[in-house]
Amino acid sequence: MTPRQKRIWMVVGIVGGVGLAATLALQAFQDNLMYFQSPTQVLEQPIAGERSFRLGGLVEPGSVTREPGNLEVRFRITDNVEAIEVSYAGLLPDLFREGQGVIVRGKLGADGLFVAEEVLAKHDENYMPPEVAESLRMPPLIKQVEAGGA
Questions:
Q1: Shared-domain flag, residues 18 and 46
Q2: Contact at 8 Å (CB) between 58 and 80?
Q3: Which helix (H) or strand (E) holds 142?
């Protein structure tokens, strides 16, 4: 092999290695990507049961239930249009309460129960995309009119 051919093969090897590294990095990023959904979005287009995602909204007033002597808590998250039942076993954040905005990470079961692995309570709309924060402020009747319903 001539020196020129050696250089060409070296360049091809380096470009191939960089391409492979970039592909592996993007694949790892895609596997760790979690989508933020509102209850309405989840009910309109369910996410596969094996895929974790984030669900955000307000804790529905009067929906928080606890079993005595157990860390499991059940509550409903609403976006003022739809609501989803959530089950979480663990300690809740100090800011967690009814009517408060939360984001939960977990999986949606076949029975429609969202099993949360993590609960984050928010103190303002900085933890939520502006579209979702706006949808929580808008009364349900106005949403229906804007969407073309009556």
A1: no
A2: yes
A3: helix 140-146
